[in-house]
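tool=predict chain=A
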Amino acid sequence: MTQPPHTFGPDSLSRREMLRRCSLGFGSVALSSLLTKNSLHATASRPVGIPHFRPRAKHVIFAYMSGGVSHVDSFDPKPELKRRHGQPMPVPVKATMFNNNGNIMGSPWEAKPRGHSGTEMTDLFPHLAALADELAVIRSMTSKVNEHAQGNYVIHTGFPFVGHPSAGAWASYGLGSANENLPGFVVLQSGGAVVPHGGLGLYTSGYLPAQHQASILQVDRDPALSNIRPGERDDLQRRRLDFIRDCDLPFSTAAGDPQVEAAIRNYETAYRMQTAVPELCEITGESEATQRLYGMDSSDKYTAAYGRQCLVARRLIERGVRFVELSCLSNGIGLGGPGNPWDQHGKIKEGHGSMARQVDQPLAGLILDLKSRGLLEDTLIVFTGEFGRTPFSQGSDGRDHNPHGFSLWLAGGGVRGGSVLGATDELGYHAVEDPCTIYDLWATVLHLLGMDHEQLTYRFGGRDFRLTDVHGRVLRKILA
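tool=predict ok
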């Protein structure tokens, strides 16, 4: 009788099948070793390889400002806007999202040089402005897209559509997590924060093994992670997981599918997270002074909620998590909705003012806390939105999307604090000096993590993919 494919009968063991099993079996051998590592049969999160060279940073905290922060009102102030306030734009205006374009609009926030470096910033972010000497500001970032969902995907994955791994998944895939009880990529939410436009695909592992996708933690809820709640007898749960493993392992061996191995890893990680996650989200052991530093005592509930994310982010990187992303809360101002709370097409002074109050003190507190604990030198903080905003008004008091030149900043982890890279024109409309792309940003982040962005690849669909696609250069001018 002819046996079905992928069975273990002698009739099916042709030379081709033998070669197939030999070529694909090493993952199962390694998995078996991991499963018998200790009494809990833990499948430790192992990196694909060691760093390509000595890293400057070990962790990344990605402060994502969904909706588009106005660079001309924050990190790239332009005095010319105030001098020409109300005048028509002197250069051709490219298509905007709504094409309801007005005249030049001066910033409602005052600007001045900050710190010993003299980096000019407005007072939109007073706490961060006081730390200007810690920030490496890029003023010439550009994007190819002008719409939120596409912009969010480009920033997160390097591609403007769903299906590609997020930057956090690439970091986890390349280096793994230093803590087998926690995933390598974590997204934090609080206060009702939601996923930006584009959905959960922003945090996906794409075609990478599934254990590298993000785990989303609601840091102010119990349970913080859906479906991860301790409660039943540990021995019964352990026996159940062992049964699942015993069923899955022969199939994994026969199929040679890395996604099956990834599923087994995820079961085991989820089991261990039942203890690890409640402990890391429990912050009552943090001093009152530390909680105040993050703004958790603020009368503004948005500041307090975002501060909790920042504090838990510090606790995560202390425990070895490779990549942590923070989520902004909606303040109900602007046209972007809850997924894009920085999207002020109107009432920019009110909307940006509220959003800045939400994140300013918590992020400054995060920098100060990391520095005081000796953690800032190997933790890289990245602050950006998907694009900037126009120097001219939309309606009377808003700004439309501007992908032609905008600002972001990095701190810690091997960057040169107090530095500025690139410039936009006198109106802040187009990048005119050292224009940068998102591929350059991620090439630089990977470089600081000790990885060559051209070597961190994954073969899928017959070609090698990477976070930086076929582009990217390391921005060495901002490196320490």
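The chain has twelve helices and 18 strands. Residues 1-12, 16-47 have pLDDT under 50 and may be disordered.
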